[in-house]
Structures are given as C-alpha cells and as structure tokens.
Amino acid sequence: MEWASPDSKVSGAVTRLRYAPGWVLSVTRSVLLGRRRSFAADAQRLVEGMTPRPRVEDAHHIPPAGAFIVVTNHYYKPGYTAWWGVTLIAAVIAQTRHADDEVVWTMTNRWTYPDWLRSHVLTPLTYQVFTRLARMWGFVSMPPMPPRPQYVPEGARAARQLLARGASATGGKPSIGIVPEGHDSPDGSLIEPPVGTGRLLLHLAEHGLPLLPVGVAEVDSVLTACFGPPFELQVARGRDRKEVDHLASTQVMTAIGALLPHELRGRYGAQIEEVVTSRATAPR
Length: 284
Prior knowledge:
Distance between the termini: 16 Å
Number of strands: 7
CATH topology: Glycerol-3-phosphate (1)-acyltransferase
Largest sheet: 7 strands, mixed
Number of domains: 1
Number of helices: 8
Radius of gyration: 18 Å
CATH architecture: 3-Layer(aba) Sandwich
Helix content: 40-55%
Structural class: alpha/beta
Strand content: 5-15%
C-alpha cells in the first residue's frame, strides 16, 4: 500500500504536540500514588490536542476482534519522538475497537548517555520515572536497545514477561505493541532491529497472533499513520538462530516500510520495492 500521493515528501515542519497541563497533573498524581490508568484513554486525549489533526490511512485493516501484534517504525525527527506515533496508533485502535481494549506496549526503562555526569544522574532518574509509567499503563518495560552488557538480564526478564502476555492473548486479548528498531535513527529512516528481535516476534506469533504493520511519518506537515493488512511470519524451520532472527526481522521491517514514503525506507528500500512490485503484478 502506498501513500495516497506517492510523490509526497516528508515535511520539514513540526506537528504541534501539546501536553495539556491538567492531563500532566493527573498523570503525575497517578504515578506518585501508583494508580493504574488506561493508555487508550490517555492516547485519545493527547491526539485531540495535535495540530494539525493527524491523518489515518486504512484503519479498516485493524482486526475487529481477537488479539494481534502491532509493529511500527521508530519514527524520529527534531522536535518529535516515536512516543507520538505509538500514541496515535493506540488512539485509533481504541476508537476502532472497544474503548477498554488496551494494547500492551513495550517501552524503554531508561535513557542512557555516553558521558559520566548524565549516565550517573539522568539515567537513574529516567529509570525511576519510566518504570513507574510502565506499571501505571500496564506496559512491559525493557532496557534500551541494543542492551548494554549489564542490562542483558533485565532484557531477558522483560522478554519472558512479554511472551507470557502473548500466551495469555490466545484468549482474545490483550494485543501487544512493539517498535522493533528500539531506538532512533539519525534521519528517521528505517534501521535494522537489535539482534534477537526477530526471534522474539516469531515466538509471539507462534501463539496464533497476526502482525498488524503501521507506518508512521509526518507527510505534507501532517502526522500520518498508515495501517497495512495483518500478516503471518513465514520462516522455514531448520535454519540457525541467527538466520531465523534476520529473516523474521526483515519480513517485519519490510511490511512496515511498504507503508512509508520512499525516503524513509532506509536499508530496506530494495526489498520493499520488490515486494510492492510483486503485489502490483500478481494476478487478481
């Protein structure tokens, strides 16, 4: 699926993203008191404050029932973080399905820095804030990707927690949301997910959960989320772990990239063109 205008260029403008003071106070109170909140409800409130109003393409691809795995790109540009793409997707899913149908998202549990001062002051502070936010919204918090050696045990625990959520999702919910790249790319284009991401997604998909790809970008000065058709990972058995991981990650990133403008497809551009061409020439 292409954007409505294939010649659209990624805009240099910045969508206005605002946090209402009342909402910030409410969230702060919930964090301090350890109260649970609905991320779906919070996401819808935040989206209402976006200027201009965000654009949504092909939301009819969202499964009307049952659990699934949302996979989207870690879209980044100055003044904009991937958080807003996740917020928009969560709001659209909530509007399309039941209001209380939450998606369990993965989120980083800290920011890391190369210098001593920030790594010893800001990193512990963000850890405290982010882990509390994750508990408040029912998210699975994971160490930054790719993980530093000291964070590997945390990553393993988070992966086990996520797989347990996937096993419980066979009953119909909750759905799971993952941003496979795990961190920003310099220019906002697609980058390769960390090692192990493909195998994690494959294990989750083995519970019978389809993958719902979403491409997020600011196009013509409008933050846009384009939903693609759900798909299943197809990786032949008998391959070694590294190859399985690479093949699964490539399938996921190609599905996401096919929903993005050409200039954001990054290292997956050639593979995406091949997929788009084969779809266009396939007999109907």
